[in-house]
Amino acid sequence: MEQPIAVTRQSFDDWMVPVYAPADFILVRGEGSQVWDQQGKSYIDFAGGIAVNALGHAHPVVTAALVEQAGKLWHLGNGYTNEPVLRLAKLLIDATFAEKVFFCNSGAEANEAALKLARKRALDNGNHSKNQIVAFNNAFHGRTLFTVSAGGQPKYSKDFAPLPGGITHTPFNDLAAAAEVINDNTCAVIVEPIQGEGGVLPADAAFLQGLRELCDRHDALLIFDEVQTGMGRTGDLYGYMQYGVVPDVLTTAKALGCGFPIGAMLTTDELAKTLSVGTHGTTYGGNPLATAVAGAVFSVINTPEVLEGVKQRHQWFLDGLNKINQQYPIFSEIRGGGLLIGCQLTKDYAGKAKQITQLANEEGVIALIAGPDVVRFTPSLVIPEQDVKEGLARFARAVARICS
Ligand SMILES: *Cc1c(COP(=O)(O)O)cnc(C)c1O
């Protein structure tokens, strides 16, 4: 065997398109909620690959499903269906409002499908002016041109003009403002039950209920982007279940594959008819390897033990973070739901979220940011109490350093 190519963090700068600025170490192995770098240093993982590794690293049930399917059948193309995809569809349908599922490979693609469905449905109904999409400031829906335009952070879209038209943004959690722009020309409203990338901002129940009513009144589809809130992250299988507001279309990805790329759009029988044969698709969508993994992920996450455990772990984090904040008051608010937690930095520490996560790395814990002023935690849903304690102790040392 030839020696593998020697790689260091410098190799990234030498060889990679520079759209990312990764940390200055390279992780090589993970188990549960711990990961190790090339030098053997250990880190507690409070990021979970940005809300993806919902069962941590190398979960035995998920790994077994992957290995088993890898020896059987990886891919067929959508001219042929397969067993794992049908089983996963049935699991998602039985557990949610949905009656039909479309599979793809990422969150952006799931949202792309949802928005295309909404436009086509209006057109199929003969309504040529019903093409307007309402979305919210600071929202994040992905990086394809359509979804990045639906997102409410112009810094991500402005360089790619001309952008798809017919998208209006309005302030999140402001029902009166939404009511002003939602009308009979609106084909869809897309919203995250908790804005993730935008700063871990939960929607008010009244806001989502109000959007539901406005959508009903104007025959617009209510699309819940649950790519980040989905699959147990909030302590329910999907966030909408906590709000008691049922969307017409729900998109899910991230935790669905726990690291194996997969996304899905869930919808009703009636709406699914819009995307008739040949109108949409993707090569890998619903391939047996991805859906076998997601089926195993689903069977572990959709259990009372795991979902109840998320609520318990939420409390462990809150208690620990509040304690840190008592000693070093750097957070003005700690918010979010389940294991999607955001810590808003006080004015004195504004803009320092990235620096805090870098110090956290040095102390041996991985945390995320959600914009320049929010430190975000999206750990494994099954992270052991010992790892929460140890990770928070390491995080406290990072906070102590930024305060000194
Ligand atoms: C991550 C994310 C997306 C995009 O998912 P990709 O898999 O990166 O395309 C879309 N919406 C929300 C809410 C997300 O958090």
Describe the structure.
The chain is of the alpha/beta class. The chain has two domains: 9-59 and 304-403, Aspartate Aminotransferase, domain 1 (Alpha-Beta Complex), CATH 3.90.1150; 73-302, Type I PLP-dependent aspartate aminotransferase-like (Major domain) (Aspartate Aminotransferase, domain 2). It contains 15 helices and 17 strands. The protein has helices at 9-15, 48-51, 60-70, 83-95, 107-124, 145-150, 154-157, 175-181, 205-217, 240-243, 269-272, 288-301, 304-327, 353-363, 385-403; strands at residues 27-31, 34-37, 42-45, 100-104, 132-136, 167-170, 186-191, 194-195, 201-202, 221-225, 249-252, 263-267, 331-337, 340-345, 365-366, 368-369, 374-377. Strands 4-12-11-10-7-5-6 form a seven-stranded mixed beta sheet, with helices on both faces. A four-stranded mixed beta sheet has the order 1-2-3-15. It has a four-stranded antiparallel beta sheet with strand order 13-14-17-16, covered by helices on one side. Strand 8 (194-195) and strand 9 (201-202) form a beta hairpin. Helix 4 (83-95) packs parallel to helix 12. The structure holds pyridoxal-5'-phosphate. The site of pyridoxal-5'-phosphate (PLP) has 15 residues, from helix 5. Residues 106-108, 111, 140-142, 192, 196-197, 225, 227-228, 253-254 line the site of pyridoxal-5'-phosphate (PLP). One of its GO terms (molecular function) is N2-acetyl-L-ornithine:2-oxoglutarate 5-aminotransferase activity.
